[in-house]
Amino acid sequence: MSLLSFLDRERTIAKPGFSRWMVPPAALCVHLCIGQAYAFSVFNLPMTKLIGISKSAPGDWKLTELGWIFSLAIFFLGVSSAVFGRWVEEGGPRRAMLTAALCWAGGFFISAIGVYAHTLWLIYIGYGVIGGCGLGIGYISPVSTLIKWFPDRPGMATGMAIMGFGGGAFIASPLSVWLMGKFHTATHVGVAETFIVLGIVYFIWMVVGSVIVRVPAPGWRPAGYTPPAQASKLITTNDVFVYDALKTPQFWLIWWVLCLNVTAGIGVLGQASAMSQEMFPGRITPIAAAGFVGLMSLFNMGGRFFWASISDYIGRKNTYFVFMVLGFALYCTVPSTGAVGSVEGFVLCFLVIISMYGGGFSTVPAYLKDMFGTRYVGAIHGLLLTAWSMAGIFGPVLVNYIREYNVTHGVPKAQAYNVTMYIMAGLLVIGFICNLLVKAVHARFHMKPEETALGIAAEAGAAMAARLTGKPANA
Amino acid sequence: MTDRISDEREGTSALQLVLAWGFVGIPLALGVLQTLINAVKLFQ
Fold first, then answer.
1. For A382, which of A201, A245, A368, B1 is 20 to 30 Å away at the CA?
2. Neighboring chain B residues of A30 at a CB cutoff of 8 Å
3. Is residue A226 included in any domain, yes or no?
4. Selected residue of B1, B7, B19, B24 to mutate for chain A interface (largest A Cβ count, 10 A)
5. CATH code: domain of residue A118
6. ipTM summary value
7. How do residues A108-155 score in pLDDT, each as one tens digit?
8. pTM here?
9. Shared domain check, A15 and A159
């Protein structure tokens, strides 16, 4: 059996007796690794001292130059998930996960060369472009597989995987700091060696995930689960072709819902440390602010699982209504917590807000599945992630520039974020309206019965051929 | 032929499940614990 055939979708079809609870760990193997992206900032300061070692020297890179590495990676996450979504969907999760592993680890190795050679563009290409493609492909690779394994709890299933993306930083951050400490010498800071070790570790981890992963056999359903005989108002039993989804208003409404929810969260996530210290000068120290950021990351991760699981019971549309209404109330409350000096109130507001930021990411695959069916949900999800790229620009710009404008116009630093909070609340009102406008997809966009039947027959035939011959049908 | 198909099973043992979940769960739990320890400083 060649490696290429081992990667085929047909090879990953589970045989009877396979437990579906093996699939979330497989997905987590990938998401925990690519979630390292959230911890990339731990390399920023050491990379400004590659020449000077103890402090920045002339010729060392500046923080502003290094900031582009993360931005590029997130940009290419959105681009690659949109471009390769259909390929991921049709090629199966194993091929996609291995490709993601090669890109992700390859990105680290190229970046290590970039650090050795002190060539910044190599890191832009390595971590930013190639690693960013690994991020995008890896992010969407297990989504539709999980939804197919857990038709009874699709929100919880995708929530588990996407929680891993939020949790990856918890592993990467202390591991990276520890490794840099081990490799640090009098002549270099140990970043390149750390990149190499991380590349190897992440590659192994992601390959394990790709070996474990399976797709359910056509027609499989969990024991005791009976699919609803009739589609409910907002949960379709039909499928929509990936590029036809782009022609529906529902896709763009959900795109805006995600974009606005992420914009509101990502801006404060990036500025949480500075914001907390400026709003409570003398009361929140830099160490306490770091603790606050850690706590926010925990709620970002936990919210991904919590809210997506809740959505299985209250529905996706209602879950986003909660994000928008509760988020609006909390953003409007934040300035008051600053005014009355309530650190506890401030922390509580942002922890809930950030849990809903994470929840927005993890609930959206199930929302798409409800709207467009399971057939191309991974690919459609990939297209939707462009909203994340857009929000990644909007959010920090809104927070930073409005604060800067206020400070330069004489507003005290403790109140410099108030306007931003009200703007964020306003964005959530627009998100609420977009979510309100989401209705069931018109039947003219549904794949025709013969197209769906052909797809199912082809899958079933391939599965049968693979089992009988021991080879994939297309080998 | 039919027998061959039905005979092919891929039973998942409890040990496999524990190993798979431990593989991802233990590093994550350690990372979360470390973060919680740091977060406590917020309230000290």
1. A201
2. none
3. no
4. B24
5. 1.20.1250.20
6. 0.83
7. 999 999 999 999 999 999 999 999 999 999 999 998 899 999 999 999
8. 0.85
9. yes
